[in-house]
Design goal:
Chain B: One of its GO terms (molecular function) is maltose binding. Chain B: This is Carbohydrate ABC transporter substrate-binding protein (CUT1 family). Chain B: Keywords: Periplasm, Signal, Transport. The structure holds two protein chains of two kinds. By secondary structure, chain A is mostly helical. Chain A is built from 13 helices and no strands. In chain A, α3 runs parallel beside α7 and α10 packs antiparallel against α13. Chain A starts with a helix and ends in a 5-residue tail after the last helix. Chain B has two domains: about 180 residues, D-Maltodextrin-Binding Protein, domain 2, CATH 3.40.190.10; about 200 residues, Periplasmic binding protein-like II (D-Maltodextrin-Binding Protein, domain 2, 3-Layer(aba) Sandwich), CATH 3.40.190.10. In chain B, the strands form five sheets. In chain B, strands 1, 2, 3, 4, 7, 16 and 17 form a seven-stranded mixed β-sheet that branches. A five-stranded mixed β-sheet of chain B has the order 9-10-13-8-14. In chain B, a hairpin with a 4-residue loop joins β11 and β12. Chain B is globular. The chains are: A mainly alpha, B alpha+beta. Chains A and B meet through loops of A and α3 and α17 of B.
């Protein structure tokens, strides 16, 4: 009876495993091999050793992109987590219009990234069509170039990415907050602990699994940022002088506009390694201390 | 008895052969663009009427995917018999074995060279031609007659020289109290057609040449290139007649009636025809003070797939001959608005007198065609070159030198 059930369980599991092997694992392994070739789609790939990696690490454009990618990660993740926690923490206590406010925060997460990017692109335009610059203009403040500037472009795009992901993080944080038993808070209040101490001693430690999940999830999201950047800067992909270009966009251009598949594969291997290292590092730093 | 049997067999074979001949179907590929697809449908209909034994199946893909589809189809041993390609893709397509040289029996070289505009040379590699265009495109200066009138300029006398162009743009450009551009004298958009204007027109008008050696060697890093680039960036920094990124895109600014002039190609006519708020005109690209003019022409050609052979090849030859015939070009001009690629079909009195087609056609006579190795990368290089000057304050000289070096690297990397 048990054996029969096991057979059933495994035959159901086999399908997704097979699917994943063909759709995910096989191409991943193939990419490692392709990164050592000069494949250009037209001629059969030829083994060229580590030439793609040498070229990549000597390319100033790559280091710029590398820096951008980490800027998205290092600035984007903490800000988005802090913001979403603060909002979730306070929203948790609001009863009036709770559902509506939560819905408003969640709405951007449901919208297509490309559509939002185009709306923001319009917001950021210079006068006379840019909404933000028009408002600045009426207030007598000089206009800002936003996505037309080498300094402002990356933060401008990051704001939209943070805003888009905020709703999801708030929902997860609120679920985490709700999961903390009320009795802990009651006990703490009876013992005379202040709000700040409760937050530090009870809420944050008990929220750790949620935080770990969101840190990893959001980091991967920022490391793979593409939609916002691509759609907001289609006429100069990656922003002026590559100031907003993330690694994924560079991979896309190398593969599908220059057709240098081997070189693009080398870039994906680098991205894969970064994602792996960053995720492992975060799991290690935020691990349960026993 | 035996004779009858033999006759029967023979008859059987011949009807089979006839059936086979009737069944020739060839596949034609191009990218999705409404008017082009409709025009091609019309051409196919006419062709099939004249060649009852051939059917042509048209397949289209979105432009962004098109090249990838052709290349992927080649890898899979599939793909079209006749396909459309941008002239700048030829190196890749010919080297990758996607196209075959045009058979000289159907397309003799002397005929190609005498009947088509000289820019057809961009389809030649070694001793072979790899494709023939139906239509060609060139650049011209579009101008907004309403803004001309408002600025006190004669709307029927558009600028003829670069100096007149700058003067007109200065009169049209308007700024608000804080100095923000409200109406541009002319659009400045390197991501649009300005990079072609700079590369093939301005550099030559300032006495230089962009490339030598079949466009495989960059030589614009000299005094002429510097003057041309300074002229271009000064339009924003000194003359303040326009601004890169104004209204997002140059063509959008012109369409919205927020720019007095814009340099764009024949392919924009369709989009500008629906403008209702103002009247616009077209004139030749401005000449320099000595009267030197230049233009940039480009085209999509049709070529025959390397895999096509036998009776399909014969059918493909007939089809290609038809879609590059004067009749097809005339239909294409009416349906799509692109200029005929044959001189006799293009330079008719009616076409030359046309207020819209005329200036584009005149431009074809002295146009140049850049032999791009990677059009996207080379355009990006020009965008970056101006951005370094406009946004980072790099000197024109240094930015130009850096751009020349980077473009040479792009060209060298593409060597097969």
């Amino acid at each position: 009876m048990r054996a029969k059930r096991l057979v059933w369980v495994w035959s159901f599991l086999a399908l997704p495993i097979l699917f994943y092997s063909v759709i995910r694992f096989y191409p991943t392994i193939e990419a490692f091999w392709l990164s050592l070739t000069n494949w250009d789609l037209l001629k059969p790939p030829q083994f060229i050793g580590f030439a793609n990696y040498q070229k990549l690490f000597a390319d100033p454009q790559f280091w710029k992109v590398f820096k951008n990618t980490f800027a998205y990660l290092v600035i984007g993740t903490p800000i988005s987590l802090l913001l979403s926690f603060v909002i979730a923490y306070h929203l948790d206590r609001v009863r009036f219009l709770h559902g509506l406010i939560r819905g408003l925060y969640f709405l951007p997460y449901l919208t297509t990234a490309a559509a939002m990017a185009w709306v923001w692109r319009w917001f950021y335009q210079p006068a006379p069509i840019g909404v933000i610059n028009n408002v600045l203009g009426t207030l007598g403040i000089p206009q800002h170039p936003f996505i037309r500037s080498v300094d402002q472009a990356l933060p401008s795009i990051m704001v939209t990415a943070i805003w888009a992901g905020l709703g999801f993080q708030i929902i997860i944080f609120m679920a985490g907050l709700r999961a903390i038993p009320n009795t802990f808070y009651e006990a703490a209040r009876i013992d005379g602990l202040g709000e700040w101490a409760i937050l530090r001693k009870i809420t944050l430690p008990l929220l750790k699994p949620t935080t770990v999940f969101l840190v990893v999830f959001s980091s991967i999201g920022f490391l793979r940022i593409f939609d916002q950047v691509y759609n907001m800067t289609t006429n100069d992909p990656g922003g002026p002088l590559g100031s907003t270009k993330p690694l994924v966009l560079m991979i896309y251009q190398t593969a599908f506009s220059s057709y240098a598949m081997g070189y693009a594969a080398a870039q994906t291997v680098v991205l894969f390694t970064i994602l792996l290292v960053v995720s492992l590092l975060q799991l290690w730093i935020l691990r349960e201390k026993k | 008895m035996r004779k009858i049997l033999f006759a029967g067999l023979l008859a059987g074979f011949s009807t089979m052969a006839l059936n086979a001949a009737q069944a020739v179907e060839i596949e034609y590929w191009q990218y999705v663009f409404d008017t082009r697809v409709k025009a091609m449908d019309k051409l196919i209909e006419n062709f099939e009427k004249a060649n009852l034994d051939i059917t042509v199946k048209q397949t289209t893909f979105p432009y962004a995917d098109y090249q990838t589809r052709v290349i992927a189809a080649k890898m899979g041993g599939q793909g079209p018999d006749v396909m459309q390609l941008f002239y700048g893709w030829l190196d890749k397509f010919a080297a990758g074995g996607i196209l075959q040289p045009l058979p000289t029996d159907a397309f003799p070289h002397d005929k190609i060279e005498s009947e088509f505009f000289p820019i057809i040379s961009a389809m030649k590699r070694g001793d072979d031609y790899y494709g023939l265009p139906t239509a060609v495109r060139s650049l011209a200066l579009f101008y907004n007659k309403k803004l001309f009138t408002e600025a006190g300029l004669d709307p029927n006398n558009p600028p003829k020289t670069l100096d007149e162009f700058v003067a007109a743009a200065e009169k049209i450009a308007r700024h608000d109290a804080s100095g923000n551009l409200v109406v541009a004298g002319s659009t400045l958009d390197m991501g649009g057609q300005d990079h072609q204007w700079w590369r093939e027109v301005l550099i030559r008008q300032f006495g230089g040449e962009p490339y030598t050696d079949g466009d495989r060697k960059v030589i614009y890093n000299d005094e002429a290139g510097e003057k041309a680039l300074k002229f271009y960036t000064d339009l924003q920094t000194e003359k303040k007649i326009g601004q890169a990124g104004f209204m997002d895109e140059g063509q959008a600014a012109f369409r919205a009636g927020m720019a007095g002039m814009t340099i764009d190609g024949t392919f924009r006519l369709g989009a500008f025809k629906s403008i209702e708020g103002f009247e616009w005109g077209v004139t030749e690209l401005p000449a320099n003070a000595e009267g030197v003019r230049s233009n940039y022409a480009s085209y999509f050609a049709n070529g025959i797939s390397a895999k096509t052979e036998g009776e399909k090849l014969e059918a493909a030859k007939k089809f290609l001959a038809y879609i590059s015939s004067p009749e097809a070009m005339d239909i294409w001009l009416k349906e799509v608005g692109e200029l005929p690629a044959r001189r006799t079909a293009a330079m008719t009195d009616a076409n030359l007198a046309d207020p819209i087609y005329g200036p584009f056609l005149k431009g074809l006579e002295y146009a140049h065609t850049t032999m791009f190795v990677d059009e996207v990368a080379q355009r990006q290089n020009t965008i970056d070159m101006t951005n370094r000057i406009l946004l980072e304050g790099q000197s024109v000289k240094d930015s130009l030198a850096q751009a020349a070096e980077a473009e040479q690297a792009i060209i060298d990397a593409a060597k097969p």
